Amino acid sequence: MASIQQNIEHITQQIKSFEQKHTRAPGSVQLLAVSKTKPIEAILDAIHSGQCTFGENYVQEGIDKIEYFSTHHADINLVWHFIGPIQSNKTRPIAENFDWVHSIDRAKIAQRLSDQRPEDKEPLQVLIQVNTSNEASKSGIDSQQVLELAAQINALPNLTLRGLMSIPANVSDYQSQLDAFQKLAQLNTQLATLYPSVDTLSMGMSGDMEAAIEAGSTCVRIGTAIFGARDYSTKN
Ligand SMILES: *Cc1c(COP(=O)(O)O)cnc(C)c1O
Questions:
Q1: How far is the CA of 119 from the centre of ligand 1 (A)?
Q2: How far, in Å, CA of 30 to CA of 220, rounded?
Q3: Ligand 1 site, residue 49, Cβ cutoff 6 A
Q4: Separation of 231 CA from ligand 1 center, angstroms?
Q5: How far is residue 173's CA from residue 220's CA, in Å, rounded to a whole number?
Q6: Is the N end or the C end of the chain the one with fewer CB atoms within 10 Å?
Q7: What was the pLDDT predicted at 236?
Q8: Which residue ranges of the chain lie beneath pLDDT 70?
Q9: What fold characterizes domain 4-227?
Q10: What's the confidence (pLDDT) of residue 187?
Q11: pLDDT for res 134
Q12: Helix/strand/coil for 161
């Protein structure tokens, strides 16, 4: 099995070659390492390969990791992104510990995160999660509601609106992947003309990274291709 270090080198190389192939600026696509369910040792391996931004889906697990690294490796500057579904009773620990949130899908959550963000921290950098596939089971708001939520977020003092995120339907044909990503990219371009802080498009995972980069992703969220398959048997 390839090591985490080899995987990161491989993906970094793939990102570079997709940037080139699709005439994206070199370095315009950031790699977010999704470390959910993975132990501290795996994150340390990734850090030793030069990775410093990590995505987590579960509040308590993410906070345990953030606290571990701020206690034992305070010299390493890590950036933590919360990318999972948000329950309103869990906003405080997210606001107090994370740097970014990708999964805002309603005004109530945005309001709470802003209210609960500690004054001594930078504003929380946030993305609106959009349901581009219109599947009832997926989280995220409909495209038609994005502008209204964006205006609400933009008015909050402790949040900075940076763009959009989506988890499209799991389809393997390239053109369908590209279509969904291009819709989101168009919406983000529209948003950026209204709000100068908007510069981030979080889309693309292990299975659809190339289409996401072709469509304009600035942040691919990669878990499995870095850390291997996840074992959920210990999660409830
Ligand atoms: C788990 C997860 C990922 C990573 O998915 P992989 O297929 O393992 O690369 C990316 N984004 C979100 C929102 C996730 O929950």
A1: 31
A2: 6
A3: no
A4: 13
A5: 18
A6: C
A7: 43
A8: 1, 134-138, 234-236
A9: TIM Barrel (3.20.20)
A10: 98
A11: 67
A12: strand
